[in-house]
Amino acid sequence: MLKVFFLIFEPGVAWEKIAQAKRGYAFILGTYLLPMIVLVTAVEGWSLHQHGKWQPTFQKFKMFTDAEIKGFEVVQAILLVAMVFVSAKLLHTASNNFHGRRSFAQVFTTVAYGFSPLLLCRLLDIAPMMNPAISWSIGVVLTIYVLYQGIPRVMSPDPTHAFGQYLSAIFIVTLTSGMVRLITALFLQGTIDYRHSWFTTGIVKLFE
Hints:
- The chain is built from nine helices and two strands; from the N terminus they run αααββαααααα.
- The longest helix has 30 residues.
- Strand 1 and strand 2 form a beta hairpin.
- The chain is an all-alpha fold and about 210 residues long.
- The relative contact order is 0.16.
């Protein structure tokens, strides 16, 4: 968890240590990514239970049932994990279109640690009146900033193609994280009732 602060405030040093460690994606997933996702979803779930969420469309606070909160947080956790893997796969494919080939472990490492500022900013959502778009915007800007230092150190692209890969990464992380944020925000803001979809209904029933 503390590593995310080093990535934000001392990105060069943090990325050098990550690159030298050469951890596999299973290790990063189990010891860093999943614990962080569990933390942010648990804290947000606690906030929804205690305070609800302000829905500007209806000008009221929406209180959620325990089953709704558990179902939502499970779905959100799944989406966040999928976001990292899909982004890593897309960036891996895009990077291999340039000269030289990067392993999936290199790309996954870059994306997983690169997304950590965005995940950290999800803690801003504990504020009942926080607009989901604000926490996402701050998080994605920090992610883009962090990736600027991470891509050349971990993925080691050819210098002539490094900026092209960085632009590809910006597009991918903005697109995938934006889609996840949109899906979750529509539920929190009360714009769409996912409770009646076949997927979320099944998740909610597991906790009833």
